[in-house]
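Can anyone check this?
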Amino acid sequence: MYICDYLGGEWDKYSLLKILYFAEQKHLAKYGRPISGDYIVAMKHGPVPSNSYNLVKPQYANPNFTEDEENIIKINGKPDLDALSESDIECLIESINENRNYGFWRLRAKSHDNAYNNTVETKGLDATIPFIDIAISGGAQPSMVEYIKHNLELQNCSFNGAPSW
């Protein structure tokens, strides 16, 4: 919702989801955690934040969004800024500014990074892309990769299964 609001209240669905992916990648590489906690899935046209994608699908009738025939998403209301940290907003704005003028094909090509390609090659389409791979593709330093691995291990131990992010 923040991205769409920042862009004037409406934007095409594909670009919104790619901007979110690149913001997640930046945040993982720089701060060691995702913004939304959304699982990123390797789909035909690149990585897609799964839950965010579901939120903007018309069949879910989310009152926060409407979509027209051209896949333009319009927000209804304002984003909850209390749900975002300063570092979340920083990475969202960086991603918006870097990607807002790219069309479908350029965003698609850019998002077919090593994290995406490795996931498709090893697990196939519709598989979840590991956060560590996303961070590495975003330029994470080795110490940050170790930090993420450690936190994922703690999450797995603490919650006896899938990490919450």
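Reply from J.R.: I decoded it. Helices lie at 2-6, 13-31, 50-55, 86-99, 104-111, 114-123, 131-137, 142-159.
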